[in-house]
Every structure is written in structure tokens, then in C-alpha cells.
């Protein structure tokens, strides 16, 4: 049934996709014969998560099968700040790989796209790329990347078996969520999984709540960028910090929240030791690798806010694949971009790691056997009023220390109010470094 | 009686304590390295139910297109090249510094002390390397290791050279030796024991270096062994068995060094650290 | 230095004398150019960046261009909530690790120079961690120190002690890392002390024994004062290491939980990671000033005492 599912960006006909593939395929063929079978190797820099590397290598392999004269070599880099730095320095020193995968949204703006990247706005294959993706890889008037990977959500993954056993229903508001959590605790199961050894996982109460913030105060992202709205003073925005504090004070976290790692958190969730885990949905492929038989016990709901009628899902758009200006293999790199932005590209990814969310390439259908949590997620993706991109796609202002700050909130070291104020200071540095208007 | 008690009692006690404090953690590392992924994730000291040594070994080596193999090659080149340059340059400096009293001595001593205590300024160093076209290159990192290691090596050499009688130099000069010949043919061989110390200490140090490769030699193709630990400690999932296998493998070279040069280290430290 | 060859020898002087004179005056057997290769590398990659850091610490910097912003970075650096914590933590870390290394190193050295069995084994096993990589050690101990499943707390539980949460308890995190630092580094201190003790002339001990001095008295009146150079070396080395320490903290806590085990070096690294190059460089300058302000007077003090003896 999912194969026939229509997505907002799935509207363009398969014909265009086919045409684009045919065009690029044709170009590849003629190039190959003209060059007398001369083969080229291009490089592609991706992050080193198991999931990324697996699908990257599959795409590279399938691309090579379609274009035998071009070999793609996958290079990896660490994620997080270290990876950001590597990307930035390799770009500024002009020795970036021929293509590289990198975040869309605010991090994309930090790599000076207009200075460093090849615009691809008018390339024919851009017709395949979903309109909802283009804004997050656009700088000035030009579009710079094609999406790789799937859309994701920052939401609560929960163990459906625990919910069934205790007769709970999916919460629509924060108070329902807390009520559920208390019942789960009474049953001797950890209600909310937190894993602060892997610090980034602590941010979900705040980051994943953004769709609720956007619903309550729609102008927040714009005002925030303009230095007019603050987490500490906006009553909707501070909720994320307050919720985390409240849950921590109520003792609803797993006992080892401070030392648990992301991998352990997933294990707890899969085994039903813990019931609910606010996390990014790209946890699903990790669960699939480690606990394949438990994958369909896992469901997903958005982080609940105050108002049941406005409860919306916070969406993470996939990263982009960009071409740096320094490449010496522009034609081949574009061919590869075209391949990624085609049905064949999505199929490679599905073949390698399964479909973990909707693709942002037109004509890409999800197979019928997507995980339960992905099925839970799709209705929100389809209705634009029920989702909002995360703040990092709407504003370039993002502080680097949020993960430490939210660890402090969850561990009871710092109050929600202090934390929000501290985070506001943290983003000031970023805004000044980016020289945004209204901050200096 | 009491001496015998002290000799055996204290000895046995010390052995017991060191087994708990030192042997057990190392054994834990080795055991975890041979477990399968799920068992290793339990983090306990249990005996593995299955031994996956070969499998883990192959997985670690072949991960990311044999990155660990590349890394071992890179680390070997880095270590050998920087230690060789360090030994020669530091010995040259130390020799002149020890033998020739002049107004430069004060400056040189000051710079050596600075090199020992000043934390290198990372971003400006990247900036300099970049302008020389050496950023992200192995030669660049080699020179970095040389620059950062010079002070310590000069100190070790100088203390040792002080114990070589100056008459030896004078005799050689009268025999018609030029400075280069004097240094490389007469003095250098006399420094053998301190050279061994410098080689052992610096090669272990550079082989184990994490921070400098991280800053100055990013990129997979250039990875050094310490950076390969990132492969298995990604933010997203940790394969403890592979991580520990990796640690085990990169511990082998320093371990071999130690097996062969245990005595020289202690002897060298006597010359360098105490007199210096 | 060849400039000094000017003075011409009178023609009447024997050839041999002329030869010698030229060598003595013009070509010292210790030519200054021996400094040159080292000086070039050291200047380019250490001195220039160090001086440049003073300049760039006053800028907002992206590596390709910079804006001069005066003292803003320093102001901001001192507003960073992690910094004050990082500052005190740096001092605590340096003090704890060097004190423990001095005390334990001395103790172990005395033990290992006395007549006990298995000295070779003990010396080897204590020294071995010095050769391990900080990152490897950090990862292994992070696992061992896991509060619920880690071996350390399981062992403590077996004897009825409830161990602390080590790395994830804000009160213990920094100390836990410091203890691992000592575990890894005490071997070096021990070896330095062994060398110091072995170099004490045996006659002192023999004379003391003749006078009927106890071994405790021998330790305090002979070993301790005469091993002073070793103590100075251990203190200076471990303080320099401790104040600049980064690898182990980064591998074990990344400054966490929150900011509770941040030290200056990790704060600098975080700013660098975030792309705040000017700010990070300002942090480097602060660390530079602090380390210099502590080590320089301390080493002068320790060395002067040595000379007086």
C-alpha cells in the first residue's frame, strides 16, 4: 500500500525522471565513447556513520555499473564538530573531494556556498529534486545541492509492546505524555530514555519541540535570526528546556541516563527496558542493524506540546551532495549528482539500508515493508500543517554548546531558565562570527 | 627474618596490587577485543562465549577500505621521519649550545624553555602551514612534530653532552677535523645511548600522538593510527569489540619497542631527566 | 661567522701556525650554523604561530579573512560559563596529578630499589602504561568506569561498597580523569625517581646504618633531600602535562557532564571546533599566560634551591 502513497513532492511525473535519467545516461554514453573508454575516478566525502557509508558505497557501485568509465571513491570523515571543521578547512584550502555530503540548512550556510560551491540551479536533474528541499540548499539565488538520504524526524520513538501491555495510547499533549510516563514507571520500566554519554542525544527535548514552538509563535524563526526573539524570554520556546527539567525532576529517566550511550539507549528501547526515547528517526537503521527482529515493535510520535490540536512533527531534511569549485572533474561530478537525484539513486539507498523515511527526490517510492515507525511518520510529512522543519533549517543561528547545556538541564546541574539564557549567549557568538545583521 | 618477610611479603602484596590495577584492565581490553559485537556491548569482564579474534581482526583491518593499514603506513613514515630529523637537529643544537658559550646561549635556553611549556597555538599554526602549502600533508605534520619535540630532545642531549670531556673535541680538531666531521664522526657515535633514549621516547610519543594529526592532517587518506579509533567510536553506534581490537593492534608497536629498549629508557632517563 | 677571518697573519709566520690561527679565530669547531636547520623549523612552525596568536586573538577570524575587534574575544572568553570552571579545573587537575605522581612515584621508587622479589616485573608493569596512547587508555577506562555495568563498580559492589558514578558524576568526573592520568603517568615518575635514588652514593646509607638510623629516618634525611632534582623534574614535567592536558579529558568526558570537567585546553578546542578561530586563539593566549606564569617562577625556584645545595 505504501508504494502508491502520494507525497507532496511526489507530484512530478515519472516521465521527467525518466527523461533526466535518459539524458544524463546518454551523455555518459557518448562521453565514454568519445574518450575512447578513458576511465576516471572521482571522490566523494561522506560522514563515517555505518548507515551513510553503507548506502554511499552502494550508490557508488550502482553508479559505476551505469557509467562504467567513472569510478566513485568514497572517503569518510568524522561527524559533529570535528567533521564540520574538516569540511570547512578542506574547502578553504581548495582540496575538497570532487563531491561531498554535508548538512543542509544552517550548517550549509556556514561553508560559504557562494564562494566555495558550484551552483547547479539550472541543471536538468534539479527538476527531480523536491521543492521543499531546495530552500535548504539555496544561498542567494542559486541552488547548490541534491538530497541524499531520507527525511527524518526529531520525535519520540516508543516501544509499542510496552504501550500495548500497559494499555496506553499515544499522547497528544505534554501532560498526557507525563501521565503515560508515570504509569510506565509504576510498571517498573524506564519511562524516558536519556543517554548523556552521547551528548548530542540530550538536545531532542529542545530541538524536537520546535514544531510546537513554530505552531505557537509562527514568527519565532525570523525574529530569532534578527536577534529579536530569545529562548529565555519566549514562552513557547523555553518549553523544551522546561519539559526536560520537569521530566528529570520527576525521576522519569532511566537510572543510568548519565552514563548511557546512544547505542545502549537503542538497546533499552528495543528490549522494552525503556519505553520512550526522544531521538532522531535516523536511529531506525541502527536498530535495524542491531535488533532486526525488534524493528517493528518501535513506533513514533512527535514530541507533545501544550495544545493537542497543534501537535506537529519536527522534521530534519536530508543532507545535500555538493560540488566544490575546486573539482577537476566537474562533468563527472554532475553526472553523479544526477544519479543521486534520480529514482535509481533512491533505489540504491533502499537496497543498502532500507527506507528510513521519505526521499526528497521526485518519483522515489517507498517499498511496502518500511518500518512501523516510518509509517507513523509519513502522515505528518504529507500534511504541511502538521510538520515544521527544525530550527536549524529556518535560521542560521545555532549555538555549538546546546548539547552540553541540555545535559546539564537533564542532570539537574542547571535550571531550565538559566540554561535557556546560557544558550542565548552561546548563539550570540555564532551570530557574530557569521556577521548577521542585528547582532553586532 | 624481618628482611625475608619484607622481601617476600611486600613483594607478594605489590604483585597482587599491580595485577588488579594494571593487568586486569589490560586483560579486559584483550578479552573485549575478541568478543562479538553484542557481547562486547555488555562491557563486562566475562569470558567470551565465542572467540572472534580472526573475524574482528579482519573486520578492523578491512574497515573503511583497509584504513588501518594505510594508517599504520602513515604512522610509520611519520614516526621514522620525524624522529630521524629530531635526533640530528636536536643533537646539533645541543652540542653547540653546550660547547660554545656566547650571548646566544641565553636566547637559546629561553627558546628551549618556551618550547617546553608554551602550548602551541593551533589555528595560527594551521594558518602558517596553509601558506606554506604543507597543511594536510605528511611532510607538514613531520615538521610539526619536529618543531614541537625539539626542546625536549635538545634538553636530553645537552645534559648528556656535558658529560663528554671537551678534550676529546680538541684532540679531534688538532687532528684536522672540521666541525661537520667532528660532530658526525666523533661526537655523534658517543651519543649512542642518549640517541636510543630519544628515539624510544619520541617515537612512542609521536606514534601515540592524537592531537596534532587531528588538527594538522585531517582526512581519511592521511589517517594515522590514533585517528582510526574514530571509525569504531562514531557518534552513532559503538562496536566495542572492534574498537578494542583496534586499540590492541595499535598498542603492539610501542609494546615491541618496550620489550627491546626497556633498559635503555631507564638508563637514558638517568642521564636526561635527573641531571637536566 | 666566516667574517672573522679578516686578521691577516704576517707572512713570516710558519704555515702551520697560520693554519692553526685561522682555525682558532675564524672557524670555530662549534659553528653557529648548526643551529640553523632547527631554528628554521622551530621559528616557522612554533615561534611565528605563537606571535601570530597574539595578533589573531584580537580578531574575528575565518582563516581566510579577519576583522579586528579589539578585546572582544577576551571579554567573551571570560564570559563563557565554561571558562571559569575550566580555569579552576585546570589548576585542580594540574595540582592533583603532579602531587599524586610525586608521592606515588617516590613511594614506588623506594619500593623498587629495595630488596623485594619480582622487581623486574613490577617495574615493567608500572612503566608500561606510559607507552600506551592516551586515547586508547581513555576509552578503556571510560568503559571500566561505567557506573552501573563497569568493572570497577562491580568489583566495589562485590565487597559492599557503592562506587560513585565516576565520569558522569559532576563531582567526580574531573578527579576520575586525573586518576587515570596518574595511572598512565606514574611509571615515568617512578623511573625518574629510581634514577635519582640509584645515583645517591651508597656510602651515605652505609654511614647512616652504622649510626643506627632507621630506614624511615634514612628516607627522610637522605633519600628525600638528595632526590630533590628528581622531584623537581617530576613536578615540572607533570605540571606542564597537567595544565595543558587535553587528550585524556577529551577521550573520557569531552569536558562533561555539561561543562563540569572542562579544562582550558578543551574549552579552546570546542571554540575551534565551532569555527570561532579568533576566540579559540584568544583562549590559547590565556592558556599560554597561565602556564608561563606558573611554570617559569616554579622552575626557577626549584632550580635555585638545587644550586644552593
Report the C-alpha radius of gyration of chain B, rounded.
23 Å
Largest sheet of chain B: none
Instruction: Name the CATH class of chain B.
Output: Mainly Alpha
Strand content of chain C: under 5%
Computed CA radius of gyration of chain C, to the nearest angstrom: 26 Å
CATH architecture of the largest domain in chain C: Orthogonal Bundle
Q: End-to-end distance of chain B, in Å?
A: 41 Å
The first-level CATH class name of the largest domain in chain C = Mainly Alpha
CATH superfamily caption of chain B: MetI-like
Strand order, largest beta sheet of chain C: 1-2
Helix content of chain B: over 70%
Biggest interface and residues each: B-C, 94 and 89 residues
Number of separate structural domains of chain C: 2
What is the CATH fold-level name of the largest domain in chain C?
MetI-like fold
Give an overview of the whole structure.
Chain C: One of its GO terms (biological process) is transmembrane transport. Chain C: Belongs to the binding-protein-dependent transport system permease family. Chain C: Residues 1-22 are annotated as: Disordered. Chain C: Residues 87-298 form the ABC transmembrane type-1 domain. The complex is a heterotrimer of chains A (440), B (276) and C (309). Chain A is of the alpha/beta class. Helices cover 43% and strands 14% of the residues of chain A. Chain A contains 19 helices and 13 strands. In chain A, the strands form three sheets. In chain A, strands 7, 8, 9, 10, 11 and 13 form a six-stranded mixed sheet that branches. In chain A, helix 1 packs antiparallel against helix 14 (330-340), helix 12 packs across helix 13 (283-290) and helix 18 (402-410) packs antiparallel against helix 19. Chain B has twelve helices and no strands. Chain B is globular and about 75 Å long. The model of chain B has no long low-confidence stretch (mean pLDDT 85). By secondary structure, chain C is mainly α. Residues 1-14 of chain C have low confidence and may be disordered. Chain C has helices at residues 15-25, 36-56, 72-79, 81-113, 119-127, 134-144, 151-158, 173-198, 202-210, 215-226, 228-244, 247-252, 264-273, 277-308, and strands at residues 59-61, 66-68. The longest helix of chain C has 33 residues, at 81-113. Chain C has 14 helices and two strands. The two termini of chain C are 39 Å apart. At the B-C interface, helix 1, helix 3, helix 4, helix 5 and helix 6 of B face helix 2, helix 5, helix 6, helix 8 and helix 11 of C.
Amino acid at each position: 500500500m505504501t508504494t502508491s502513497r502520494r507525497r507532496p513532492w511526489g507530484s512530478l511525473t515519472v516521465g521527467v525522471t525518466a527523461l533526466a535519467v535518459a539524458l544524463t545516461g546518454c551523455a555518459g554514453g557518448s562521453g565514454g565513447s568519445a574518450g575512447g573508454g578513458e576511465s576516471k575516478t572521482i571522490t566523494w566525502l561522506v560522514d563515517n556513520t555505518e548507515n551513510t557509508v553503507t548506502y554511499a558505497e552502494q550508490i557508488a557501485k550502482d553508479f559505476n555499473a551505469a557509467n562504467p568509465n567513472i569510478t566513485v571513491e568514497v572517503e569518510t570523515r568524522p561527524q559533529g564538530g570535528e567533521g564540520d571543521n574538516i569540511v570547512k578547512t578542506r574547502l578553504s584550502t581548495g582540496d575538497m573531494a570532487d563531491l561531498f555530503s554535508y548538512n543542509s540548512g544552517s550548517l550549509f550556510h556556514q561553508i560559504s556556498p557562494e564562494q566555495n560551491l558550484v551552483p547547479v540551479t539550472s541543471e536538468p536533474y534539479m527538476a527531480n529534486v523536491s521543492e521543499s528541499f531546495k530552500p535548504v540548499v539555496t544561498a542567494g539565488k542559486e541552488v547548490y545541492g541534491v538530497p541524499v538520504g531520507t527525511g527524518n524526524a526529531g520525535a519520540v520513538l516508543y516501544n509499542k509492546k510496552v504501550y500495548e501491555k500497559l494499555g496506553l495510547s499515544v499522547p497528544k499533549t505534554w501532560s498526557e505524555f507525563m501521565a503515560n510516563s508515570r504509569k510506565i514507571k509504576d510498571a517498573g520500566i524506564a519511562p524516558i530514555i536519556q543517554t548523556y554519554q552521547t551528548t548530542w542525544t540530550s538536545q531532542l527535548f529542545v530541538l524536537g519541540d520546535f514544531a510546537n514552538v513554530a505552531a505557537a509563535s509562527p514568527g519565532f524563526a525570523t525574529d530569532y535570526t534578527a536577534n529579536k526573539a530569545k529562548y529565555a524570554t519566549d514562552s513557547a520556546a523555553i518549553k523544551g528546556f522546561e519539559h526536560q527539567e520537569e521530566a528529570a525532576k520527576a525521576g522519569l529517566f532511566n537510572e543510568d541516563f548519565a552514563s548511557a550511550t546512544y547505542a545502549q539507549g537503542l538497546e533499552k528501547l528495543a528490549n522494552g527496558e525503556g519505553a520512550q526515547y526522544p531521538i532522531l528517526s535516523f536511529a531506525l537503521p541502527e536498530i535495524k542493524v542491531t535488533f532486526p527482529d525488534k524493528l517493528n515493535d518501535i513506533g513514533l510520535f512527535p514530541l507533545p506540546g501544550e495544545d493537542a490540536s497543534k501537535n506537529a512533527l519536527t522534521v530534519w531534511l536530508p543532507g545535500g551532495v555538493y560540488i566544490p569549485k575546486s573539482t577537476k572533474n566537474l562533468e563527472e561530478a554532475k553526472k553523479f549528482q544526477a544519479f543521486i537525484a534520480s529514482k535509481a539513486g533512491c533505489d540504491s539507498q533502499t537496497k543498502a539500508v532500507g527506507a528510513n523515511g521519505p526521499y526528497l527526490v521526485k518519483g522515489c517510492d517507498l517499498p511496502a515493508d518500511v518500518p512501523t515507525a516510518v509509517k507513523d511518520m509519513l502522515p505528518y510529512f504529507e500534511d504541511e500543517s502538521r510538520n515544521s522543519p527544525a530550527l536549524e533549517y529556518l535560521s542560521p543561528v545555532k549555538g555549538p554548546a546546546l548539547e552540553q547545556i541540555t545535559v546539564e538541564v537533564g542532570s539537574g546541574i542547571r535550571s531550565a531558565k538559566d540554561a535557556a539564557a546560557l544558550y542565548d549567549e552561546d548563539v550570540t557568538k555564532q551570530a557574530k562570527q557569521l556577521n548577521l545583521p542585528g547582532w553586532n | 627474618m624481618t628482611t625475608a618477610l619484607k622481601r617476600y611479603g611486600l613483594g607478594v602484596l605489590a604483585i597482587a596490587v599491580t595485577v588488579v590495577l594494571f593487568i586486569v584492565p589490560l586483560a579486559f581490553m584483550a578479552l573485549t577485543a575478541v568478543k562479538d559485537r553484542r557481547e562486547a556491548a555488555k562491557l563486562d569482564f566475562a569470558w567470551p562465549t565465542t572467540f572472534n579474534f580472526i573475524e574482528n581482526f579482519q573486520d578492523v583491518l578491512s574497515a573503511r577500505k583497509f584504513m588501518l593499514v594505510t594508517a599504520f603506513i602513515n604512522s610509520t613514515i611519520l614516526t621514522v621521519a620525524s624522529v630521524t630529523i629530531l635526533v640530528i637537529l636536536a643533537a646539533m643544537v645541543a652540542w653547540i649550545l653546550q660547547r660554545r658559550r656566547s650571548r646566544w646561549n641565553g636566547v637559546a635556553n629561553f627558546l628551549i624553555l618556551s618550547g617546553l611549556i608554551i602550548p602551541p597555538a593551533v589555528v595560527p599554526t594551521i594558518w602558517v602551514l596553509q601558506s606554506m602549502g604543507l597543511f594536510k600533508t605528511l611532510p607538514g605534520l613531520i615538521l610539526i612534530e619536529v618543531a614541537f619535540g625539539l626542546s625536549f630532545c635538545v634538553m636530553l642531549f645537552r645534559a648528556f653532552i656535558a658529560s663528554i670531556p671537551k678534550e676529546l673535541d680538541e684532540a679531534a680538531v688538532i687532528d684536522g677535523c672540521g666541525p661537520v666531521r667532528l660532530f658526525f664522526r666523533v661526537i655523534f657515535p658517543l651519543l649512542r645511548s642518549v640517541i636510543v633514549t630519544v628515539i624510544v621516547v619520541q617515537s612512542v610519543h609521536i606514534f601515540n600522538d592524537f592531537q596534532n594529526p587531528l588538527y594538522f592532517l585531517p582526512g581519511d587518506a592521511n589517517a594515522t593510527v590514533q585517528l582510526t579509533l574514530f571509525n569504531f567510536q562514531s557518534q552513532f553506534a559503538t562496536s566495542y569489540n572492534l574498537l578494542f581490537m583496534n586499540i590492541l593492534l595499535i598498542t603492539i608497536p610501542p609494546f615491541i619497542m618496550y620489550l627491546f629498549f626497556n633498559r635503555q629508557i631507564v638508563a637514558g632517563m638517568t642521564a636526561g631527566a635527573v641531571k637536566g | 661567522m666566516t667574517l672573522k677571518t679578516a686578521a691577516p697573519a704576517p707572512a713570516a709566520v710558519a704555515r702551520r701556525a697560520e693554519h692553526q690561527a685561522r682555525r682558532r679565530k675564524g672557524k670555530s669547531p662549534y659553528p653557529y650554523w648548526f643551529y640553523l636547520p632547527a631554528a628554521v623549523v622551530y621559528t616557522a612552525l612554533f615561534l611565528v604561530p605563537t606571535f601570530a596568536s597574539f595578533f589573531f586573538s584580537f580578531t574575528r577570524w575565518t582563516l581566510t579573512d579577519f576583522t579586528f575587534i579589539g578585546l572582544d574575544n577576551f571579554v567573551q572568553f571570560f564570559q563563557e560559563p565554561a571558562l571559569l570552571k575550566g580555569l579552576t579545573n585546570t589548576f585542580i587537575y594540574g595540582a592533583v596529578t603532579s602531587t599524586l605522581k610525586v608521592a606515588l612515584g617516590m613511594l614506588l621508587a623506594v619500593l623498587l630499589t629495595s630488596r623485594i622479589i619480582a622487581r623486574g616485573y613490577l617495574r615493567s608493569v608500572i612503566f608500561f602504561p606510559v607507552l600506551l596512547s592516551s586515547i586508547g587508555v581513555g576509552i578503556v577506562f571510560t568503559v571500566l568506569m561505567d557506573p552501573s555495568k563497569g568493572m570497577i563498580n562491580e568489583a566495589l559492589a562485590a565487597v559492599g561498597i557503592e562506587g560513585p558514578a565516576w565520569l558522569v558524576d559532576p563531582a567526580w568526573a574531573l578527579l576520575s580523569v586525573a586518576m587515570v592520568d596518574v595511572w598512565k603517568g606514574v611509571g615515568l615518575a617512578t623511573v625518574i625517581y629510581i634514577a635519582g635514588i640509584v645515583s645517591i652514593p651508597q656510602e651515605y646509607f652505609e654511614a647512616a646504618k652504622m649510626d643506627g638510623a632507621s630506614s624511615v629516618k634514612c628516607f627522610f634525611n637522605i633519600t628525600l633531600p638528595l632526590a630533590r632534582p628528581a622531584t623537581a623534574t617530576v613536578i615540572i614535567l607533570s605540571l606542564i602535562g597537567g595544565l595543558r592536558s587535553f587528550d585524556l579529558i577529551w577521550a573520557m568526558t569531552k569536558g562533561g557532564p555539561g561543562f563540569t570537567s572542562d579544562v582550558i585546553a578543551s574549552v579552546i578546542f570546542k571554540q575551534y571546533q565551532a569555527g570561532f578561530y579568533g576566540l579559540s586563539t584568544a583562549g590559547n593566549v590565556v592558556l599560554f599566560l597561565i602556564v608561563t606564569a606558573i611554570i617559569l617562577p616554579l622552575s626557577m625556584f626549584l632550580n635555585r634551591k638545587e644550586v644552593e645545595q
